[in-house]
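S2.1 Query sequence (Universal stress protein)
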Amino acid sequence: MTGPVVVGVDGSPAGTTAAWWAAREGMTRRLPVILVHSWTTQPLNVPVPQEALSKQQYGQSVLRRTEAELLHRYGDLSLTTELVEASASQALLEHSERAALLVLGSRGHGSAASFLLGSISLHVLGLSRCPAVTVRAGDPAIATGWGHPGTERGDVAVGVEPGPGADALLEFAFTTAEAHGCGVHVVRALPYQYAVAAGRHEERDAVERARLAASLAPWREKFPGVPLVDEVTAGPAAQVLLSAATRGRLTVVGRRRHPSHLTWKLGPVAHAVLHHAPCPVAVVPHD
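Output C-alpha cells follow.
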C-alpha cells in the first residue's frame, strides 16, 4: 500500500477521533499523514466582511492544535496539514486519487455521519477511489487525548461473496491484519431461504465451506503469518458481518466502482455496517 493517509478534521470530537486513528494507522503502515480542513465548509457566526478571514483563522487553529496533539503522541510521524478552499467532499475525493486511505469522522451510532458539520460523508464513501474508513466519535478503543492509547481490539472482520470483488476486500483485510499483527475473520452469509430449499443442511454447509476455503487458499499462502478464521453462516449478510465485528479491530465492506464520477451507490450491507458496527469501518471500492 502506497500513498498517504488523508483525514478530514474540523475541530469536532468526530474529526479528532478520526485524526488519532489516522495517525496510528500511518505509524503502523509507515505512511505519511495529511490533515485536511476545508475552511469554506466550516460556517461561523461572524459578520459577513470578516467571515472568510475568520473561517481561515479557525481552520488554521484546528490544524495546528490537531498537529500538536498527534506529534506529541507520535513524534516520528510524517505529518503535513492543508487548509483548502474547496469543499470538504471535493478535497477528499481529489486526494483519493493518490491516497492509500481516506479517514472520516462519524458522529456516532445511528448515523454514517460526515465530516465537517454534517456534510454527507456517504458521498465521499461512494466515490472515493481508494479505501475510505469511518471512525466513530469517542470510540473507546482509540486514543482520545495526549498520549493515552486505546484498548486493543481483535481481528479484522470482512464479509465476502463469490466473485471478483472479493479479492480487493481480502487484500485490504490481510494487508491491514499483517501490519497490525492480528488475524482476519472472514464471513460468508447464506440466505435462510437457500438453507431451507436445499433441505440437506450438512451437505450444503460442507460445499459452501469448501468453496470459501478454496477462495482463501491463495491468501493463506501469501500471508502465512496472519491467523485466519473462516465462517459460513445462514442469515442476513449485514447481521452475520455485524456479529463478527462485535469485538473487531476493523470491519471491511465493499462497494462497486462506477465509470461516472457522478454515479455512486452503497449497498444495504454497507449501509447497515456503517450505521451499527462498533468499530471503524473500511469501505473498499472494487470493479
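The chain has two domains: 5-136, 156-286. Residues 156-286 form a domain with the Rossmann fold fold (CATH 3.40.50.620).
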